[in-house]
Structure formats: C-alpha cells, structure tokens
Amino acid sequence: MGPKKQSTAVKRLMTEYKQLLNDPPEGVSAGPISEDNFLEWECLLAGPPDTCYEGGIYPATLTFPEDYPLNPPKMVFNGPIFHPNVYKNGEVCISILHAPGDDPNMYETAAERWSPIQSVEKILVSVISMLAEPNSESPANIDASKMWRDDRPAFEQLVRSQILASLGISNE
Amino acid sequence: MMSDTTSEDHYEFSDQFDDDFDLQDPGNFDSDNNYFNIVNMEHVKASERRTVAEIADLFSIMVPMSTILLMAYFWNREKLSEEYIEGRALAKVGLTDADLEVQRKSGQKVQCSPRTCPICCDTYTRGFQLACKHTACIKCYERYLGEKLSSGDLLSTRCLGQHDCRLVATLDDFRELSKDLESGYLEKTAASYLQSHSSSFKACPGPGCTSIIELTSSLAMLDLDQYMVECSCGKRFCLGCKNDWHLPIKCDLASRWMNINGERMKNNLWLDKNTKPCPKCEARIERTEGCNHMKCRTCHFEYCWMCMQEWSAHNGMFFKCVHFQPSAEAKHSGRATSARLKHYSIRFDSNIIDSRRDVNVRDLTFSSQQVLNKAVPTLSYTRRILAWTYVLLFYVTGSNQKTILETSVSDIESHAETLAELLAGDEQAAAPCLELSGYLETRVENLITHALETNWKLDRNSLTYTPS
Fold first, then answer.
1. Chain A residue with Cα closest to B147
2. For a Cys-Cys bond, which of A42, B32, B156, B426 suits A100, CB 3.0-4.6 Å?
3. Tell me: the pLDDT tens digits for A114-129?
C-alpha cells in the first residue's frame, strides 16, 4: 500500500474480505482482483442446487463506488446468463443493489434496499436466491421473463445449454 | 381580463407592506377576487406543520413519525388515513406496530469503551444510536444522514447498528445529532410538502426569488394554462407551465414553440437530452438505471418509459412495450414548413424584442406620468400578445377563424406602431397616446378571448416540424 491514506471504502472492504475468507457463504467466493485496487472484485457463484442453474459456475465483477458503503456496488456477470433479473449485458438488477429511491418500486420493500449496514456477503446471498427464485415483477431481461412465465421447460432447456456451452460441452 | 397594464402601480403600493401574505396581484384577474396570494416559505411550513399535527393527533403518533408517513403518502391525508386504519401504512415505510412503540423515543449520542464501527471499521468511543440502541460511530451517522438529506431521501434513513433492524431515523434523531441536520431535515420536508401540493403552490421561477404563489381552491380547480401571474419580484409567468407569459395561446403549443424556436433548447439542453416529463404530472424524470416500468416519485403514476403510457395498459403483453413507435416527428419535415417557420419566428422574435425595449422608453422623453403608467405598459403588453399570436398562426390551419385572427393582428400591429412612434415623439401627443392605448387594450382583450375560445384546427405540418 502506498503512502495514501486508506479511504473508508477500502478499509471497510478489507474487513469484509477478511470475513468472507474466514467464513464464506455456501456456493460463492469473492475477493479483490488486485491488492492495488480494492474497489474491483471478482466473484464466482455456483448455480444453486435443485434449480436449472445447478452445475453452472458464474463469474461476475463487483464494482464499488468511492463512497462505499454509502452507496451499493454494481454487479455484472462476465459470461452469458439467461435470467429475468439480469440485463443482456450481464448487469444484475435486484433490490439490494439499489439505493432506496433509485428504483421505480421504491419503498414497497424499503427493508430490502441497500443501506450501509448491508454487505458484500448479503449481496451474494441475495444473488444466489435470485437465481433460485427469479422476480418477474421487475424484469431486466424481458425475453427471459416472458419465457420463464410462459414456457418454463424451454427456459430451463436454454439455461442448461448455456451451462454446457460454458463448460465446452456441446448440447447437440 | 386585461387589467395588467395597471399592475405596476399596485406593486409600488403593495411593496410598502411587509406582510407578504396579503399581496394581491391584479394581473389577469378581477382585483375583487381572491384567486391567489403571494406567500413565502414560512407560510408553506406553517401549513405543513398543521397537516402533520392533525395526523399525529388522529392516530396518537409522534409528530416525526406523522411526517414520515405523510411523506411516504405524498401528503395524501385521505389515502394515509385509510391505509393506516387498515394496518397497511407502516409497512410502506418498512416498520411494524412494535417498531412504532420503540420509535416514540428519540435516539441519543453515547460515550462507550473503544469498539469497531460496523460501517467504517474504525475504532470509536463516541457513538450514536436510534431508539433501538444499536450503535455505530457518530461520524458515520452524520455522514450517512447528511447524504440522505442531499439525495432528498428521508424515508429510508435506517439504523446503522444492525443489518436486520428496521428502525428509521426521524426528525428527533436528526435534531439529537446536530442543528444543521435538523434544519436540513425541516427544509426537505417543506420541499416535499410543496412539491406534493403543486396544484395549489407554484414556486416563482424568477431568479433568486423565494416567493410562492398560493392558489385558492377555486383557481386550483381551473385549467391553469391561460392564467398568467406577476410575482412581487416582477417575474411574470404562466401558472400552467411556469414559463414566460404566452397568452393568447395555451401551454402545449407554447412549449412546442419554445422547443423549435431554439430558446428552450439553449436553456434546457441537458433536461431535454436526459429527462422526460412524467406523462401525468410533468415532473422531470431521469432514468439512470432499472427497467421500463417507471413510477413517478411526485404523483405515483406508473407508466412505461418507452411509450410513456400507463403501465397497466401493458398487461396483455407482459412487460413488452406494444405502444412504442418511432416518433412521428422524425418522419416529417419539408421546405415549405421551414419557410413558414422562418416567417413566423421572425415576427415572434421582433415583437418579443420590441416588447422588452418599449419598457425602457419611459426614461426618455416623457414627463407625463399618466402616459408612462398607461401607454408604455400597454404597448409592451400588446407586443407580447402579438408575438404569441404569431405562434398560434403558425400552428393553426387555414380557416375563417384564422383569417379573422390575421386581420386583428395586422390592425393591432399597425396601431401599436403608431403608438410607438407617438411615444418616441414629443409630449404634446399625450392625449392621442392615451386614446390609442385605450383602443389597443380593447382590441387585445378581444383577440385573447377569440384565441382562447376558438376550437382551433391544428396544422399537421407545423406540429410535426423538427429543426434539422
């Protein structure tokens, strides 16, 4: 570390990183990409068991703002993932990643929004449960949302073939 | 309608009184009628406090909690009361009945043995806690609540001590922390009250002016887009759109005109590029992220960002916008419209410029107060009306009504020219000046009535013109 004074964001993220190493939640691992920049994290999420995402390993990037933890990080999946709450560019859209008031459905569930007492761990746990239970009320990917509602078998088929492709196994 | 030309006198007179509450502008109204008052922020705050106290009384809750609930319901007392009785109101701010009991007490600063703050991870001895007694360091609380104030979000100021605690920092907690936070909080609640009552309060858009036009209930019910007021700061604006006066045309045409005529483009470039007005209340909304399902913070209207229509209209297609089509405006243009636009905008601009210049004539040659007080404002007002009548002429399609309007315009314009010449001449002409301005007043009044009461057929080409 250089002579620069550590910012609140970095100090807090170092503490969170330590906690995550000691006691990681089921199915995730996460940490800064480089020791020089604590505001950029890489994570790996395992698709939750008993869902069509099971068996998939999903890499994602967390980007923290300078004023973390006042404001939440952004989370983007790095590979393809077909899900109602993930934009086609990989950006995750769930309530805990929204500052309260940022969101068209504000205050309906104020307690689930971002607040400084939330943490990376809470975010990752929420994303895992988002994979298990998509929220079609606020879709980020309209096609996925529609297929998930109208044609569940086709939806699951598509997700599975994405997983196979990511593992280098052809579905044909 | 047009008693405007005498408003200058009234203002000099009423400025002698300090009591803003009773200022009454004759403007476009009969001076006998109490259509509106010019008030200040203190007046709005007093009105806000009464509302908060009523709700606090009604449900035997504390004033700070009453404020939070009212803000969550956009100051809609009826809806709040209804849902409070049904037991749904607290959930809206993420609280339970038990939390409400705890929240009766305010938070406090605490001195403690060194411990680690859950937010910044620094060691602290001076902490703060809400009534739940979960502690975080005082600096983090100050920073967090300061940030909440600047983002205007007072409904999710949650406990920083424990992640599953639902308690919300209220006015009492802001007050415990510091004087600045308390006064910031009061400013924000007043602003929220003002915004939610935008049908009865109109903040004056004049530069640096803090006055607010309070409409009486009878006026708040009317179609505001033909009511123009003059604030005590001298700013004249339209009650409907808060832009400059645009009689005899209505806000929608005036705003289209401002767009294509470039004025508004210059002033509001960022707004136009980055925001869209809520289709219901016209509050400017910037969508930074999220889906197309939008909910206006000001009026609660739910709509689709793509087609700007009500969200419920999308049920059938499940989050796929069926209404959106490329703007019709992009398809049309054409040289003919361009030439017409030029024709009318030259006339519009020159009348606006003259109307501003005429007001300055007063310090030139005339010594007769009567002429200064009557003829000069009349001439300036006439030019303004003419300018906006040209806009109307640009937008409406050929008809007898349009011909009648054109005839009036050319008559009024030639008489206005004569008056301008007289005013620039010698002061022997006082009597003809007064006579001419009397004539203009009548003609202009008729023109406004005609323009406002006619059901115009709009010209499709003018409406769809887009500057390249």
1. A70
2. B156
3. 889 999 999 999 999 9
How would you class B205 by CB atoms within 10 Å of its CB: exposed for 0-12, middle for 13-18, buried for 19 or more? middle
**B151 in contact with A at a CB cutoff of 8 Å?**
yes
Closest CA–CA distance from residue A169 to any residue of chain B (Å): 33
CB contacts, 8 Å: B122 with chain A: 8, 11
Residues B113 and B179 in one domain: yes
Same domain membership, residue B456 and residue B360: yes
Minimum distance, in Å, between the CA of residue A102 and any CA atom of chain B: 8
Is residue A43 flagged as an active site residue? no
CATH of the domain at B281: 1.20.120.1750
> In 3D, which of B428, B419, B421, B429 has the Cα closest to residue B375?
B419
What is the per-residue pLDDT across B395-414, written as a single tens digit (0 to 9) for each? 888 788 888 988 898 889 88
Residue of A nearest to B143 (CA): A70
- Are B281 and B188 in the same domain? no
* Domains contained in chain A, number: 1
Mutation pick from B93, B160, B319 vs chain A, by most beta carbons of A within 10 Å, is B319
With CB atoms and an 8 Å threshold, state whether B319 touches A139.
Answer: yes
Q: Are residues B190 and B66 in the same domain?
A: yes
pLDDT of A103 higher than 50: no
Q: What is the number of structural domains in chain B? A: 2
Host domain of residue A41: 8-167
State how far the Cα of B173 lies from the Cα of B108, in Å rounded to an integer. 7
B128, containing H or E segment? strand B123-129
User: Is A172 inside any structural domain?
Assistant: no
A107 interaction partners in chain B (CB closer than 8 Å)? 72, 92-94, 155-156
State whether B191 and B306 are in the same domain: no
What is the overall mean pLDDT for chain B? 78
| Residue-wise burial string across B428-459, b where 16 or more C-beta atoms lie within 10 A, e elsewhere | ebbeebbebbebbbebbeebbeebbebebeeb
Question: Chain A contact for B175, CB < 8 A?
Answer: no
Distance CA B236, CA B244 (A): 6
The reply to whether A37 falls in a domain is yes
Would B407 be classed as within a structural domain? yes
B159 interaction partners in chain A (CB closer than 8 Å): 117
Chain Cα centroid distance, residue B363: 34
Please state, in angstroms and as integers, the Cα–Cα distance from residue B164 to each residue in A113, A116, B94, B159, B426, following that order: 11, 12, 11, 9, 82
Q: Is residue A53 part of a domain?
A: yes
- What pTM did the predictor assign? 0.70
Together in a domain, B273 and B390: yes
Mean pLDDT calculated for residue range B6-28 = 34
Which residue range(s) make up the domain with B436?
251-463
Q: Which residues of B touch A108 (CB under 8 A)?
A: 92
Contacting residues for A163 by C-beta, under 8 A, at least 6 apart: A47, A53, A55, A56
- Residue B33 falls within a domain, yes or no? no
Instruction: Return the higher-pLDDT residue of B37 and B305.
Output: B37
DSSP secondary structure of chain A: --SSPPPHHHHHHHHHHHHHHHSPPTTEEEEEEETTEEEEEEEEEEPPTTSTTTT-EEEEEEE--TTTTSSPPEEEESS----TTB-TTSBB--GGGSPTTSSTTTTTTGGGS--TT--HHHHHHHHHHHHHS--TTS-SSHHHHHHHHH-HHHHHHHHHHHHHHHTT----
